[in-house]
């Protein structure tokens, strides 16, 4: 290709591990044109990227489109397999680090980190062409050969850790349910000072009784398909959990500092996420089908033996081999047990799961 045809990016030059790299801004309209994917049919040893998880792309694209005024995407990291030229604005100081990066149009670009962002942007552009002139940061590394690309992918992802679900909920101001769950935790006397707001798992000696993520999922189940304003649903959830707490004495003993959270979690299953989610599902049934007398029906929950030692009831439902299991199958079986204690009917899907469980036709 004629070397006079090239991409020119405004860039800042840096040094990392003795190698030059460049930071620039790329218009979104150019991303699909210059950043391509490896052939997905190639075996992993010959690729420089993971296979694109196409199921993630529509959700990421919807995030951009739904938040046109405040979406946030971090920088894309890419390798360039070509001879590039950097023209600095000056010969010394800061001027020597700022300039323009000239890249031949026949250069090969490989995304080391951000291929799903790139695909989501391409999809979003089809629906919202106005995004074309917006930009995303790109970090360019010079690379010739597959080995370096593969090593960069490994290095960039080596210490990447997804935040816990609780922390994601805590910092999320877009999700109405996240906002509602946080309000319930802050306003309800049941959860005050006993909810871990950042971690989604509790150590055996943890001082907290619940996690924010478990309250989130349980309250989501409680309010499924229930109409009302955010304030109305928040109050409804608070009232429900206050009523539940009246009949689970160990929760009250923890707040009164007469039992530790560690003791309760070790001996009982009612503070674990699967039990909370199941209690939430039962509450949803009560609020939708018996709104006037749900409290009277819920009172029967005090007769349930929530202790782990009650293996005759809980083994195979919410415990497998004595360990708490949180699969959707186990949530349904635990919900069924609570409904039975409250003399509530099972739905058709719950009945199918229950029958399979009684036949022994279920996965352990």
From TrEMBL:
Q: Which CDD domains match?
A: dndB
Return the InterPro entries for the record: DGQHR-contain_dom (IPR017601), DNA_S_mod_DndB (IPR017642)
Q: Could you name the domain of life of the organism this protein comes from?
A: Bacteria
Question: Which Pfam families does its entry note?
Answer: DndB
Q: Which NCBIfam families match?
A: DGQHR (TIGR03187), DNA_S_dndB (TIGR03233)
Query: What protein does this entry describe?
Result: DNA sulfur modification protein DndB
What is the organism field in this record?
Desulfatibacillum aliphaticivorans
């Amino acid at each position: 290709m004629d070397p006079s045809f090239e991409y020119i990016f405004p860039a800042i030059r840096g040094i990392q591990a003795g190698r030059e790299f460049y930071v620039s801004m790329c218009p979104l309209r150019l991303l699909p044109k210059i950043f391509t994917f490896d052939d997905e049919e190639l075996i992993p040893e010959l690729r420089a990227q993971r296979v694109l998880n196409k199921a993630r792309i529509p959700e990421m694209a919807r995030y951009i489109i739904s938040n046109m005024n405040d979406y946030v995407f971090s920088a894309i990291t890419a390798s360039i397999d070509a001879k590039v030229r950097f023209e600095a604005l000056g010969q010394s100081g800061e001027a020597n680090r700022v300039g323009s990066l000239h890249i031949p149009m026949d250069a090969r670009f490989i995304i080391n980190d951000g291929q799903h962002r790139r695909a989501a942007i391409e999809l979003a552009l089809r629906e919202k062409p106005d995004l074309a002139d917006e930009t995303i940061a790109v970090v360019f590394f010079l690379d010739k050969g597959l080995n370096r690309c593969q090593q960069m992918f490994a290095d960039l992802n080596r210490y990447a850790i997804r935040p816990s679900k609780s922390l994601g909920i805590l910092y999320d101001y877009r999700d109405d349910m996240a906002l509602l769950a946080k309000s319930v935790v802050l306003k309800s006397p049941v959860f005050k000072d006993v909810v871990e707001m950042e971690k989604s798992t509790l150590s055996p000696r943890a001082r907290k009784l619940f996690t924010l993520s478990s309250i989130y999922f349980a309250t989501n189940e409680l309010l499924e398909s229930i109409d009302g304003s955010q304030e109305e649903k928040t109050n409804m959830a608070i009232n429900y959990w206050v009523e539940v707490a009246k009949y689970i004495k160990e929760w009250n003993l923890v707040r009164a500092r007469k039992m530790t959270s560690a003791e309760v979690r070790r001996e009982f299953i009612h503070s674990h996420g699967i039990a909370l989610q199941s209690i939430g599902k039962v509450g949803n049934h009560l609020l939708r089908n018996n709104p006037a007398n749900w409290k009277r029906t819920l009172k029967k929950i005090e007769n349930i033996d929530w202790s782990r030692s009650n293996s005759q009831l809980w083994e195979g439902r919410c415990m497998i081999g004595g360990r708490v299991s949180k699969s959707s199958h186990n949530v349904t079986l635990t919900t069924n047990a609570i409904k039975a204690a409250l003399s509530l009917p099972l739905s058709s899907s719950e009945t199918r799961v229950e029958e399979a469980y009684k036949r022994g036709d279920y996965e352990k």
